[in-house]
Specification:
The chain is an alpha/beta fold. It has eight helices and seven strands. The chain binds nicotinamide-adenine-dinucleotide.
């Protein structure tokens, strides 16, 4: 899988799946832009792979716009957008106890954030006459999530991807949606910790009930979807 000559933006690339993907894309020859809320980890990731770091809060439109303005000014193009930023709040909270603030916050990062990234990436792709976007939904979108807010927000991301795929195809922009299963990242481990606390057991004990995948596994799928090798792939990719 060759990604040389590609400019790839990993928005949410500081940690977890995004970080592993940024690392693999760079290894495969891409010039990778890491954008993230977490400046310390984001800079460390970018430095480790020889890429550029741009701070961003995906819930803030001006901040997202600034990322793509910077990419345009620096490289004059964007081949691939991987908006991996996401949060999971409200795990195991009953619907009657879930606050609208929590619900809104999750939607702002997961749904609004994915939309804003695409909104400002697409003009660069239209200018070039081609591009690739891989949104990150979750198995939680179509299964039973630990969180009403998270599961339904990921349904929103899935639908955003399906709509984008249909509407952007005429501009030669290929859109896929990746729906990962359980991957060992800060996000997933935090949820399992809540679960363990509720059951009165240790995190280690609770982890035995899971067969968590490694973020590098998701990186392989995302990097492949970003590559020309996946040119014939359409729609949603469900993984473990
Ligand atoms: N880990 C899993 O089991 C799993 C399963 C299905 C889907 N996902 C999805 O994969 C994606 C990556 O998650 P992960 O598991 O690697 O989590 P993670 O917590 O390790 O990483 C999430 C990244 O998003 C960034 N981020 C959060 N809020 C942001 C904001 N407002 N602006 C910019 N960046 C922000 C964080 O700083 C972090 O770098 C998410 O969209 C998540 O929903 C994860």
């Amino acid at each position: 899988m060759d990604l040389s000559n590609k400019i790839i933006a990993v928005v949410g690339g500081a940690m977890g799946i995004g970080r592993a993907t940024a690392e693999l894309c760079a290894k495969r020859g891409a010039t990778v832009v890491v954008a993230d809320f977490n400046e310390i980890e984001g800079k460390a990731t970018a430095e480790a792979i020889g890429g550029m770091f741009i701070p961003v809060d995906v819930t803030n439109e001006a901040s997202v716009q600034a990322v793509f303005d910077k990419i345009d000014a620096t490289y004059g193009k964007l081949d691939v957008l991987l908006p991996t930023a996401g949060i999971l709040l409200g795990a195991y909270v009953d619907i009657e106890d879930l606050t609208s603030d929590t619900f809104r916050k999750v939607y702002e990062v997961n749904v609004l954030g994915s939309f804003l990234c695409a909104k400002y990436a697409v003009p660069l792709m239209k200018k070039a006459g081609k591009g690739v976007i891989v949104y990150v939904s979750s198995g939680a979108a179509t299964g039973v999530s630990s969180s009403y807010a998270y599961g339904s927000s990921k349904g929103g991301v899935l639908s955003l991807g399906i709509t984008s795929a249909g509407k952007l195809a005429e501009h030669n922009i290929r859109v896929n949606v990746l729906s990962p299963g359980n991957i060992a990242t800060y996000m997933k481990l935090s949820v399992i910790e809540v679960e363990a606390q509720q059951r009165g057991i240790t995190l280690e004990e609770r982890l035995k009930a899971y067969n968590l995948g490694d973020p590098s596994g998701m990186a392989k799928v995302l990097a492949w979807l970003a590559s020309d090798d996946a040119d014939y792939v359409r729609g949603t990719i469900q993984t473990r």
